[in-house]
Amino acid sequence: MKKLIIHGGRRLSGEVTIGGAKNSTVALIPASILADSVVNFDSVPDILDVYNLQIIMRSMNVQSSFSNGELMIDPTGIVEAELPSTAIKSLRASYYFMGSLLGRFGRAVVTFPGGDNIGPRPIDQHVKGFEALGAEVEYDNDTVRITAPNGLHGTRIYMDMVSVGATVNTILAAVKAEGTTILENAAKEPEITDLVTFLNNMGAKIRGAGTDTIRIVGVERLISNNVHTIIPDRIEAGTYLSMAAAQGDGVLVKNIIPEHLEAFIAKMVEAGVDLDVREDSIYVPKTEKFNAIKIKTTPFPGFATDLQQPITPLLTLADEESLITEEIYPERTRHIPELNKLGMDIDNYAHGLIAIRPSTQLSGNVVAAAEIRAGAALVIGGLMSEGETVINNSEHILRGYDRLIHKITQLNGDIRIVETDEPMQ
């Protein structure tokens, strides 16, 4: 087990470069097993999720190598095999193997995935997509068994709710299905467009990514002929923008696609941060006065639920009470009691309402990361607080943030990671 130790109060300055998108990467890697050739990615973030996905693939005789942001995957010798439940349960995105295995073999057996505990995230919309394509789905304790005895066939599917996971899984299952699939009320996130770009470059026929209607004409083979560069991580970018605004004396955040962050940027500006938005970077100046704001999380292109926690510590610097309404995952509030241990004044109420009041006397304490983005909020809070902050269960943070220690150290932050024998809580 690992814990982060932060000595806060130091002002941040300099440059930080954002890595490839975690939420793209964890979909692209399972998607790669659909290929009938070696697949190569670059701008791959150095995060624990990548290593766990490699373990899962290795169990199927899929070879891979990962170094300096470059990931090679060779699925040409893939075999059907029982997937390692420990690795599956360590990250929720492992459920994308349901769609990719179904698309590859016409069947899949996957242990029910784990990942962050941020409230109920059922897979009913995933199952709806699979069944519409002609699959049969059975549950056996914590195992999902999916079979398509008569093959997969294109059809029209309307998602009852916008779901990134279900959209991705349906695409993965449908890309080799016979005929045309029309997926309506699809999620619009940039990571879905990234996945579709990867698949189309291998010969898939998918149109409409980035809109709420995606059309998929099934193909027999997918062959990779070039390296796929993963898009920059908009959530990592938003995290460093918040960090720089809260504790910075001038920070340039590089490798950003500003169009992916429009709702977040608008709220930062509304809060009083005079961002200099450039073509592929954003400069965050030192900010002396912050305004209280109201935020509501919604599906893309709205304010991302994954940026709700990272902006929370920043809003304690505002002159009045700020309000956040968490519409996506109302139970995503486990960062709040931990931030309060640092001296912040934050309350959460029913239906995902979070009230953030001005807090001036912050001091380090021992806290615990309950999930990736809650942990990111604690890192920002620790950097803002005087004295030492210890963040237990930091594996959660390292699952989602590329070279976190190096990047914060380069900005003049005092942060290090230590091993501990204590079990995760």
Automatic annotation (TrEMBL):
Active-site residues from the entry: D116 (proton donor)
InterPro entries referenced in this protein's UniProt entry, alphabetically: Enolpyruvate_Tfrase_dom, Enolpyruvate_Tfrase_sf, MurA_subfamily, RNA3'P_cycl/enolpyr_Trfase_a/b, UDP_GlcNAc_COvinyl_MurA
Major subcellular location class: cytoplasm
Statement: the UniProt record of this protein carries the keyword RNA-binding: no
GO BP annotations, alphabetical order: cell division; cell wall organization; peptidoglycan biosynthetic process; regulation of cell shape; UDP-N-acetylgalactosamine biosynthetic process
Xref: Pfam families: EPSP_synthase (PF00275)
Entry's Gene Ontology cellular component terms: cytoplasm
Binding locations of UDP-N-acetyl-alpha-D-glucosamine: R92, R121, P122, I123, D124, Q125, D306, I328
Gene3D superfamilies: Enolpyruvate transferase domain (3.65.10.10)
Source organism superkingdom: Bacteria
Binding site for phosphoenolpyruvate: K22, N23
Gene Ontology terms for molecular function: UDP-N-acetylglucosamine 1-carboxyvinyltransferase activity
Record localization: Cytoplasm
EC top class named in words: transferase
Catalytic reactions on record: phosphoenolpyruvate + UDP-N-acetyl-alpha-D-glucosamine = UDP-N-acetyl-3-O-(1-carboxyvinyl)-alpha-D-glucosamine + phosphate
EC number: 2.5.1.7
Keywords, ordered alphabetically: Cell cycle, Cell division, Cell shape, Cell wall biogenesis/degradation, Cytoplasm, Peptidoglycan synthesis, Transferase
Pathway the protein takes part in: Cell wall biogenesis; peptidoglycan biosynthesis
SUPFAM superfamilies according to UniProt: EPT/RTPC-like (SSF55205)
Domain called Enolpyruvate transferase: residue spans: 7-407
Family recorded in the similarity comment: Belongs to the EPSP synthase family. MurA subfamily.
Function: Cell wall formation. Adds enolpyruvyl to UDP-N-acetylglucosamine.
Name of this chain's protein: UDP-N-acetylglucosamine 1-carboxyvinyltransferase
